[in-house]
## 1
Amino acid sequence: MKRIKLTVAYDGTNYCGWQMQSNGITVQTVLNSALSEFLQEKIYTVGASRTDTGVHARGNVAVFDTRAQIPGNKIAFALNQRLPEDIRILGSQEVSPEFHPRFTSTIKTYEYKILNRTFSDPIRRKDSMFWYGKLNLKAMKKAAGYLMGTHDFKSFAAIKGTEGSTVRTIYATRLWKEEDMIHFQIQGNGFLYHMVRIITGTLLKIGQGSWPSEQICQILEARDRSRAGATARACGLTLLKIRYPEWEPDLRNRQNDKFKSISLNV
Amino acid sequence: MKRIKLTVAYDGTNYCGWQMQSNGITVQTVLNSALSEFLQEKIYTVGASRTDTGVHARGNVAVFDTRAQIPGNKIAFALNQRLPEDIRILGSQEVSPEFHPRFTSTIKTYEYKILNRTFSDPIRRKDSMFWYGKLNLKAMKKAAGYLMGTHDFKSFAAIKGTEGSTVRTIYATRLWKEEDMIHFQIQGNGFLYHMVRIITGTLLKIGQGSWPSEQICQILEARDRSRAGATARACGLTLLKIRYPEWEPDLRNRQNDKFKSISLNV
């Protein structure tokens, strides 16, 4: 038995998010079927990030156990032949059985893109959100900066679907405009349900001048979802990368007894 | 009666090209219907570039005549409400009746994008062509440079659909890589059927090392389609911009009698 880690990219437009569910096709469903057919055994993947309907990924992580003999790094090539073109495996590798994509410290990076011009662009409509009005980028950047550090992000979490601690650490935020596209990147140890989209909606309020940059601090303190901005559209959001600091750069050489094997069936 | 010029952007993925035809939905068909419904009269647009199935545009130009009273610059906003989100009017203006989008000297700029990395990217699969192998950009750039100037481009035109003179002038070519995306831009006074895609296919042959850069000169001289490379996929191609040097910057003020009104029904 060995454990395989996949780096997964997808155009989320046509999927009901990552997580398997009964009422719609998800990325995980398609991936499980392709893997099961390819490896000739029942495969169940565990994803690092349960991205929402319409959200994209350039580097989500999925892990599964298999009895197959194929070397871990060969799986990506073979699996891509069996996947639709809106899902691509960008890398595969064997990891030690202690590795679990969610019970391990992570650094996740998300990007939200806002196309800011007079008219929307048909070619870029599926991976960005269109915004007609003028935006004060300096004010948005300043507000984003206040989010850095460890805070209770309860105000920035959807009420439905949020359980347990709402404390998260944001390591970095970046916001810049390149031609007519505003890029907002945020890096942290984890994100609550809808968190990046609610933060983006709040930054848009600030960018429009409805609220001053400093209001984001009061919103944080309030721990009240109704104080923050609207949830920005899913299509503008992409999960860029997930890193596992404890496990890099030598994932494969850390099969020591410091870690216990963690079952994926949790 | 007045003449209106539209700047049109579209994601060509779901259209059988620009030009109206009986066996598939085209951008022109959709535009004509939306305009006719909006202006309450039968409208027939004439496009500057009859882009092919799957080819995109950020700045195609369409012109039509109307009796409507609405100011030319207001049409874009109103029309976008009636168009599907994969077609967008980026601007509208009244032009003099001598203006015809094809019987006027133009400077057209096309861009071909090649995603050059190990695995394809689901998010960028619809507006670029994926290429796995290594490419020598310096050799491709050098070859593209040989195309500048006035030449007979018969070798770079599809045999079907090419009529009349095959002489065109290329004003500029640019080729660069930004992260994993190769951008090839070409600017000229006009392009033959499939010309940019065949040039791209030829540059790929050179980039792979199958042919030296200089071979592009022999291909030009041969005036023989079979000597050039394959026609690169439509999805990588975007019509970026069309300029009308005789008419800019003061299109509206040139309604003098130097020009005769040109009927759009040709």
## 2
Amino acid sequence: MSSSYGQNIRLTIFGQSHSPAIGVTLEGLPAGQQIDMEALQRFLKRRAPGQNAYSTPRKEADLPEFVSGVVGDVTCGAPLTAMIRNTNTRSGDYSNLVQTPRPGHADYTAQVKYHGAQDYAGGGHFSGRLTAPLCIAGGICKQLLEREGIQIISRIASIGGVKDQGELTASTAEKEFPVVDDACGEAMKNCIAEARADGDSVGGVIEVAVLGLPVGLGDPMFDGMENRIASIVFGIPAVKGLEFGSGFDVAAMRGSENNDCFTVKDGKVCTETNHAGGILGGITNGMPLTFRAAVKPTPSIGKPQQSVNLETMQVETLNIVGRHDPCIVPRAVPCMEAAAAIAVYDALLEEKKG
Amino acid sequence: MSSSYGQNIRLTIFGQSHSPAIGVTLEGLPAGQQIDMEALQRFLKRRAPGQNAYSTPRKEADLPEFVSGVVGDVTCGAPLTAMIRNTNTRSGDYSNLVQTPRPGHADYTAQVKYHGAQDYAGGGHFSGRLTAPLCIAGGICKQLLEREGIQIISRIASIGGVKDQGELTASTAEKEFPVVDDACGEAMKNCIAEARADGDSVGGVIEVAVLGLPVGLGDPMFDGMENRIASIVFGIPAVKGLEFGSGFDVAAMRGSENNDCFTVKDGKVCTETNHAGGILGGITNGMPLTFRAAVKPTPSIGKPQQSVNLETMQVETLNIVGRHDPCIVPRAVPCMEAAAAIAVYDALLEEKKG
Amino acid sequence: MSSSYGQNIRLTIFGQSHSPAIGVTLEGLPAGQQIDMEALQRFLKRRAPGQNAYSTPRKEADLPEFVSGVVGDVTCGAPLTAMIRNTNTRSGDYSNLVQTPRPGHADYTAQVKYHGAQDYAGGGHFSGRLTAPLCIAGGICKQLLEREGIQIISRIASIGGVKDQGELTASTAEKEFPVVDDACGEAMKNCIAEARADGDSVGGVIEVAVLGLPVGLGDPMFDGMENRIASIVFGIPAVKGLEFGSGFDVAAMRGSENNDCFTVKDGKVCTETNHAGGILGGITNGMPLTFRAAVKPTPSIGKPQQSVNLETMQVETLNIVGRHDPCIVPRAVPCMEAAAAIAVYDALLEEKKG
Amino acid sequence: MSSSYGQNIRLTIFGQSHSPAIGVTLEGLPAGQQIDMEALQRFLKRRAPGQNAYSTPRKEADLPEFVSGVVGDVTCGAPLTAMIRNTNTRSGDYSNLVQTPRPGHADYTAQVKYHGAQDYAGGGHFSGRLTAPLCIAGGICKQLLEREGIQIISRIASIGGVKDQGELTASTAEKEFPVVDDACGEAMKNCIAEARADGDSVGGVIEVAVLGLPVGLGDPMFDGMENRIASIVFGIPAVKGLEFGSGFDVAAMRGSENNDCFTVKDGKVCTETNHAGGILGGITNGMPLTFRAAVKPTPSIGKPQQSVNLETMQVETLNIVGRHDPCIVPRAVPCMEAAAAIAVYDALLEEKKG
């Protein structure tokens, strides 16, 4: 199967890029929680297309309709379903991709898996557009976490090899282009502009931190915080790598260097460093839970590319028309927060049982 | 909860480092499959302790007893449970760790999570020893995959910053110290020996490739191959990062570089390069599925470390006695194969429904 | 949580009686299956309200909108979501029930469980109206089963103590009032009419048979056919009992009487009798799978009833206004078929893995 | 798959009648709970064979070994696995049943499902012996429920058509032959003795009540208390029917009769009657949760029976040798309590999240 996540809350995402609507159902939300609809709307706007020079010009209102699960704006305990109508669809753009799949896309794998019955228009269910319902669900969970003193922040750590400098803080996360060092941010934007000018695209890395976590969230083995977060973050299209704390850098460290020494601050146990990214044995240790995800460059590019005509089995040159982001990293930032929020909220509910 | 994985096969791992036994139950195996017990034993031996200079001297036979699910050595369709008795336990080694947790271990987080009721001896359920039942389950799945023409190979990609050179092939995977370039292997072993001499430890990276996969395994969103593999691989203690194909390197690439062009070989669609690691949209594309996992240095080291006495809330110096691997990377190699085998076999069964 | 069912297909039902819409998401459907929309509409019409003298006069078109998962009327492999708008809502009818719960309804239990945040209008998520999306999902599964030679039929076995006579056959199931003996049917209708005249309601029993099943569906223990069917059938509001084959009658039988002797017909193994209802050890034996479900009388009645004012904690007399079925048994018949279809189709997909 | 149950605790049962051992793994138990091993042993003894005249003479110690999940007799948060060795196996008894399946047993369906690879000895995984691990898990849950003021009691409601008289109370449940009216109990025992003398067997009905439940356990739709209980109770071999409260009797009632009027006692809301069996809309209402399960007569009988030789496809007369209960109802009583305890405890943990 496919498009569900969670054990204590459960989200199910439905829709295709060009279907009548896309949406999400969220089961297991506590009743009586008011959803701040304006805050949710602001959160959704961070991933909406057409906002600025470095994203696709496809514009959509992306106002979710809540069809169930709330009375007014308060959760009622029943499954919450929110939906966004697809108003601005241009199916004609994709007609030639049925038989000549786009490199880097799911066109070919979907064609084989679904025996040609897949909805190919706009990438169908594999479209990045499906992160909109993810953000609805995640935006709600983020609000619920904030009520428990848990905050999720993030930044663009790099784009096209240009790295941000400095430490992620809450004030960074509020920026329109969330980097610590704005000069780095300008260099990243230039990198995107160059790629766009070349009919090309660039990737990047996004860093997320979850602050204010209690000690003890997460479970051993396959329900550890890393597992829980990984199994939702890899559901965001284009993610190809994920690391927690010092991540791949630990592979070159010695134990004496990587181990975070325990100490006491303000009467509480904490660690001097945070190579572990706030997770020991899959369980939160009270330090910030940090992870970084590698996002590949948008596969849809203007440049001609080599592909194969699946009918004739001849190699062909493919030209992709249509509107595409030269870099999806900025729009993927709230998606990472959404994914983290859902995973953490699910783990929080798990812990309440104990 | 904790210690189960899978949708079409389901494994549940039980046991603590010093409990009477550790084991695994595997549901959903097809009936009538002969398990090659000798091949399984050889596979388990690859992760067994006490084999050589760079692993812990704790020696255990690690012969699994099959208590259910087979008639002779043939699966019968009922849940298969295999168990390993813990014969060589030395609980006394760990008595001082109850109140002064080891940095880098789950001692502290388990203490808080389980309110002091956890089995602290030897790391309890968080011990690396629990990868033995994972390898039993994975070794069985590996055999079943081989019958469908799917092979899983792996190598040590780096240890302590020393990187292997060359391309992973099946012959590499069969080596006692699985690296392509044996000179690199010697350098890695020296690196381990130095760490051991210093009472320290080192980490590394393991690379895995799954060969012979059909096109179409994996599902969209949260059941993609990356998600499925991630949610089991992060269950292996000490894994802090995971990347597929070119992984974090894609973040610095352009789309025209990262996209794998389609071509035709031997009448079949394939790609010229494999930056995608054999996965597009979460679904296998017929190329080798490749991933790399970062393994942190063993947290148990001989050097004195700073910790906190949880009773007095005073900072203390901790000296860990007992037997520990200066580098668990070599023994983690078959664990990665086991994890991959279980995830891939689960996805394969999923696909058979369709 | 709540409103999801299934392992190989997964349905999630959302909506409340008076929310903007109700609907269902169905994951795991095979791609490329054409849905016969007219046949589905005919099936849905069997449970729609306002059709005749013995159901509520609330009339709704109940035309589902397919918002995802299909291209035209063919499944595309993505989650299928279908929705029905709630057009004919009269929230005012229910205003007095918030503080004085209706006997036999979920008003009181929902009030306590959701701390007063539940959507009380029209029964909210507990309304029988939520069986409409169940019937959408079940109607689709029924079509898919028919393509595999599996047919689901049903009848009203009794209403208000009046029992149907004779054996259930396919032709019975097609009747507008599905009983074998139409004279019994008339007696049942009279029974309903009398209850209505008294401002009261009556219950009944529905019998279902699944024909054409292969041997081998269902799994041991908690995934047997009885378990699978029970866990969905008890999701239909008002069901208070469920029995398979000879059901409760077996309790008074001897083994020699209840055991179905094996024999051979047309070269195939079958049984002389079918006390087992086609299930041995949780697994289909090729005989018709039969079950019967007890449906309680509609709890909403016109007669004054004793309840408690939850604010004053005083006993009060409650008068329920609004439109209600004097007997929901006829409308529950297709719901039982839908539930059976979903459970059986899920088990069929499970078996395809093996 | 098969042999797992639960969402918040999860039990997995393994073993076959004649495998080296049978057992159960229980995940999700809270840490720090002391298991009263003597009380557990007393509970297990209630279902053990060989206790009296009306059960099989196969005698087994049935002392569970706790191989994981406890430190001493206190839960430690890791999966708890308990095992019972199969010491008294006589595989020879069953050799002729491979090709000539026993009527009423899973021999034939297992043979087809598992293509002849099933463990046929003693019924394999389908044996009633697998209720021993169910009782281990249930016995533990029962103890945990008692600490929360929730008590589970039961009685034999009928055997072979002989019905008990009077109301189930806690004192009944403690009897060696748990009926209210001991004269009825004597008649039941006679009924069993007659069946045994005839080489035959009899079935019966078991009634269970759960006392002391809070209002609000259970969830709407497919996670209602009826669904949760049904999906475990039908996992007990031989159960063919299940009803809650007044069950099938409600089908002949009018709403005014079946609706339980609310009233106030000791300052708490309750109902005057309990036709609903303590469940409204799937959710507990604070009244005793009551259900009754129909248990078929033991299919293994001494009388010759007609079966089919699966090799020759000829009808044959089958004579079953071996030791069998003429009536399993008395031994099934604690199994019902165990099933109820697990289902209720799982629902209780669910509620703690909210």
